[in-house]
Write a structure and sequence with these properties.
heterodimer, A: 209 residues, alpha/beta, Rossmann fold, 7-stranded mixed beta sheet, two-stranded antiparallel ribbon, 9 strands, 28% strand, B: 273 residues, 11-stranded mixed beta sheet, 12 helices
């Protein structure tokens, strides 16, 4: 079973910083969390530019299948907002990826990590046990898990491991629109494309950068 | 509202559909001049669409959004930071009313706009505490703006119109029927970043708002007392679908991290995308 996944992100945000850039980064957070129908296509267009400039080598392409990562709780209504799905659709409309493939679903809610007290954050295992594979027919073997935010990377790593366990032949990468910069007081820039890795270390996920 | 203020509103919201002048006889409003000469208060009702208020809606928001919103009062409250709905039972317990007031004071201290439905009980406590604490409040009505329902809240409704904001999706003349209130609850969920259910029974209409908040991807909080009330089935079900428990212990952290999900800073952010 895989213990690491390559990841990319386009933007950075500061949860608590007071600088003007940090405050602006939270405005971006809010628009992404709200699946703003103006903002998501703009982000997809920018990601398309980055992809064309080889900022994210191997992540996007005509053979890439986009897989939205489930939110932290199941959806009661099939038409309920699922932000990663909206992001996938925007990326697909921008020509990034061959198809949107909703192959994962959340079966039970996990505590909201961003709001949980220290020591109570959902562990990787909790994430894995709450995810289920809903399709075993991938349109292409190259999979890009897509989420709105990445903090430690538990959700993305858990999703990658669950998908890999069900279909070991898949080539899985992960993309988050925004990465959370919780360990520094402020962010210096918002538009900040990076490629890195999320790996399993001492039973938990570690994200770099 | 003075004419100059109405013109300012028109400048602020360039896409306004219309501004209608109404007059009050103290027992509801009617169009135009009433020759009886009774005490009247001139006011302006501004008609907007949800898109005027929130910007373009995503598909999930579009599904249950009303065609129009009738506003009376300070429409700028729809653009002043996070808005939080505080809702619950009409026949609230004394403890529930205290909890509502405690919560509202915390929201006001964080400069959040308190939204509720002008009903008796929790709603009334939410509005009155917001006003008494120096905060801002929006009442989303299940009736047209020219109806006072419940009648006992007529003065509160006028106070909110004068210094805060009344919102209704029902045009003048729409009959007042029970089926309108679930629609109102969905609209309240649409207009706010988060909903807090303070206290509600098994069959309470407040539950409609909770489910709509979850469907819209808005934050839904259940006060600890209702979340763990074993007599109720809906809190457990809502928590299975993403509702969070709000307690005195986590209130400060939750409010500090509250995202403005209805934010429309799209132009400012477009520059950094």
């Amino acid at each position: 079973m895989i213990d690491r996944v390559a990841y990319a992100a386009g933007y950075a945000y500061s949860p608590r910083g007071n600088s003007e850039v940090s405050q602006r980064s939270r405005q971006l957070r809010d628009l992404v969390k709200g699946a703003n129908p103006q903002t998501l296509p703009q982000i997809a267009a920018r990601v398309s530019q980055w992809a064309a400039a080889r900022e994210f080598p191997g992540f996007f392409g005509p053979q890439t299948t986009l897989v939205p990562v489930p939110a932290r709780a199941p959806r009661r209504d099939p038409d309920a907002l699922w932000v990663p799905e909206r992001i996938c659709l925007a990326l697909h409309a921008a020509g990034l990826g061959r198809e949107v493939w909703p192959a994962l679903q959340r079966t039970v809610a996990v505590p909201k990590s961003a709001f949980a007290a220290r020591g109570e954050r959902p562990e990787l295992q909790v994430h894995m046990e709450s995810l289920a594979v809903t399709s075993h027919v991938p349109p292409t073997p190259r999979i890009l898990l897509v989420d709105d935010f990445v903090t430690k990377g538990r959700t993305l790593l858990a999703a990658a491991k669950v998908l890999d366990a069900a279909m070991p032949a898949l080539e899985i990468r992960a993309f988050a629109v925004v990465r959370t910069m919780g360990l520094v007081p402020d962010v210096e820039q918002i538009r900040w494309p990076v490629v890195g890795e999320i790996r399993l270390e001492d039973g938990d996920a570690v994200r770099e950068p | 509202m003075p004419d100059e203020a109405a013109k300012l509103l028109l400048c602020l919201f360039g896409k306004l559909s219309s501004v209608i002048s109404l007059k009050s006889d103290g027992h509801g409003l009617e169009m135009g001049h009433n020759a009886s000469g009774e005490r009247r208060a001139r006011m302006n009702v501004v008609t907007m669409t949800p898109e005027d208020v929130l910007g373009p809606l995503n598909e999930v928001e579009q599904k249950n959004a009303p065609r129009a919103l009738y506003l009376r009062g300070d429409a700028s409250l729809l653009h002043q930071g996070p808005r939080v709905s505080v809702v619950g039972s009409r026949k609230a317990s004394a403890e529930g009313l205290k909890r509502a007031s405690f919560l509202v004071r915390a929201l006001v201290s964080q400069r959040m706009v308190v939204v509720s439905g002008l009903a008796e009980g929790i709603d009334t406590a939410a509005h009155t505490t917001a006003i008494e604490s120096g905060g801002r409040t929006i009442a989303v009505l299940g009736t047209p703006l020219d109806k006072a329902y419940p009648a006992a809240n007529r003065d509160l409704q006028e106070t909110i119109a004068a210094g805060h904001l009344l919102v209704s999706q029902f045009r003048s003349g729409t009959p007042v029927t029970p089926k309108n209130f679930p629609f109102r609850n969905r609209t309240m969920a649409l207009l706010t970043d988060a909903t807090v259910i303070v206290e509600a029974g098994e069959k309470s209409g407040t539950v409609h708002q909770g489910w709509e908040a979850l469907r819209l991807g808005r934050l839904l909080f259940l006060m600890e007392s209702v979340a763990h009330d074993s007599r109720l089935s809906w809190p457990k079900e809502m928590m299975e679908y993403g509702a969070q428990v709000l307690s005195r212990e986590n209130l400060e952290d939750e409010l500090a991290d509250l995202p403005a999900l209805t934010s429309r800073h799209t132009e400012a952010i477009a520059a950094v995308i």
